[in-house]
Amino acid sequence: MIEKAKTIQLVRNVKKGDEAAFTMLYDAFQKNVFFWGFYYFTDKEKALDIVQDVFTIVWKKIHSLKDDGAFYTWLRTITLNVCRNEERRDKLEICELYDFSMEQFATKESNMQNIDYHLFLDLVKRLIFELKESLRLVAFLHFIRDYEPVEIARMLDIPLGTIHSRLHRIRLDLRYLLTQNGYGYTCNEA
Fold it and tell me: What is the pLDDT of residues 20-37, one digit of tens each?
């Protein structure tokens, strides 16, 4: 990463349409964007796509950056928003487990082609018990017993942020396990 004064000068030059300055900004920060994208998706190809999408937005929207010294924070915010949008676009039906209880999810109309509700529910319960021990109880309480994250945090005396992190990890693990079991369908809705 380059020093802040140089970043500010590059941002000002890019705002004037200087493509060479944009290339220098790209070279200086593309590794950061790649890291954030890879951390979000754990997928190298997707992270590379994120880099391209983010810097396309940077080029188009750099004039909206009011404080040139806040470029790094602005870039990180854009990256997070691009990752979230990409996740919405690509997410599998299992991603909705985060927002719906097991029963709501399994009875929700989906493109999972006449899935047998009880068979699917049994599979998900079995897969929950294959998760790491630290995730298993949180998954059970949230997806099977329908407890909200706040309630789980109180019951287990664990910070709410930790519960949210575990639910995110659970969602990723269940997505992978369900895909391994033949349920790798994408959502129709974003």
Answer: 999 999 999 999 999 999
- CA–CA separation, 92 vs 55, rounded Å? 26
| DSSP classification of residue 140 | I
Q: pTM here?
A: 0.50
**Per-residue model confidence as pLDDT tens digits over 39-75:** 887 888 889 999 999 999 999 999 999 999 999 999 9
CA-CA distance, 101 to 163, in Å (whole number)? 16
Report the length, in residues, of the chain.
190
> What's residue 145's pLDDT?
75
In order of start, what are the domains of the chain with their CATH numbers?
4-90 (1.10.1740.10), 93-180 (1.10.10.10)
Contact, 32 vs 75, CB < 8 A?
A: yes
Indicate if the pLDDT at residue 14 is higher than 60: yes
Pull the structure tokens for residue 20. Answer: 């060479």
Query: In angstroms, rounded to a whole number, what is the distance separating the alpha carbons of residues 85 and 97?
Result: 18
How far lies 36's CA from each of 17, 25, 75, 103, 117, in Å? 27, 16, 10, 34, 37
- The answer to whether the beta carbons of residues 125 and 177 sit under 8 Å apart is no
End-to-end Cα separation, the chain, in angstroms:
35
Question: How far, in Å, are 133, 146, 151 from residue 158 at the CA level?
Answer: 15, 18, 10
